[in-house]
Amino acid sequence: MSESTSHPAAHREPTHREPTQGEFTLHEFTADDGTRLAFRTTGDGPLLVCLPGGPGRAAEYLGDLGGLSAHRTLVLPDTRGTGRSGAAAPASYRVDRLVADVEALRRHLGRERIDLLGHSAGGGLALLYAAAHPERLDSLTLVAPSFAVLGLPSDTEADAVVAARADEPWHPAAERAYRRMKSARSFAEAAPHRLAFEPLMYGRWDEAARAHAAADQAQRSLSVSDHYYAGYQPDGPALLRSLAALRCPVLLVAGALDLWPTAASAAAVVRRLPGGTGLTVQPGAGHYPWLDDPVAFTATVVGFLTGRREAAGPVPLA
Description:
Helices cover 31% and strands 15% of the residues. The protein is built from 13 helices and eight strands. It has an eight-stranded mixed sheet with strand order 1-2-4-3-5-6-7-8, sandwiched between helices. The radius of gyration is 18 Å and the shape is globular.
């Protein structure tokens, strides 16, 4: 099975041009504790706040989310300690403490409510924000979210997903790296195995995927990665009760080939989220569905957001 034809359902049609660095506008604001935080904006249309994952990876890796910027003004914050945002006490990097930074960003944007998207570990942060501030959301989009904040597994049937890709030429090395990543006690310990493992995180391991994976090291703060969940004790039942107060629409997008979360994990968690939560499993997609098939990803998210209350007005500069 060749790299170029292994998953025909995934395609990267040239329907959009990825913005260059100069087409992102940099802004700053001040967190409640005085830390200077940065975010970039790109695109046109109503605001969509997009929380990056990693954990500890600068928002640069999100790009313009497969052309989503043609429909929305993307607000892309760098988590404190990453990218252009200032460093702070490592204890403040913990996921539940970052909720205050999201709320400070909402206030800075001057919005009573926001449309919120979170990817990977940023999806977990988005869930915590939704539980703490349900009245502040117009919609919640979870893209390949981690369920660690809920104390629920993200890797149900992950070994079967790995085994299903055994015909790929990179599979033996990637599987060995996957086992080492799983047994690592910290992100720093896992880091030497990350690049060999990365083919398992994409629908197909082509030039675009390799470039995206190679950028990880420069974009990641291992200090933020290792403190993101340090000392965090999830109270899943309480969080799920809080999330039940959500009155906004919720969509979860999972990749059929993703390992964290697997489609099986996503389906199990959706049943425990607020009634009416939608689940889309994107065929041929891994952990970054906007790269594996930007056309399908953008259609899914735009379709979900269509009809939501749209707040007009410019993004304030700082």
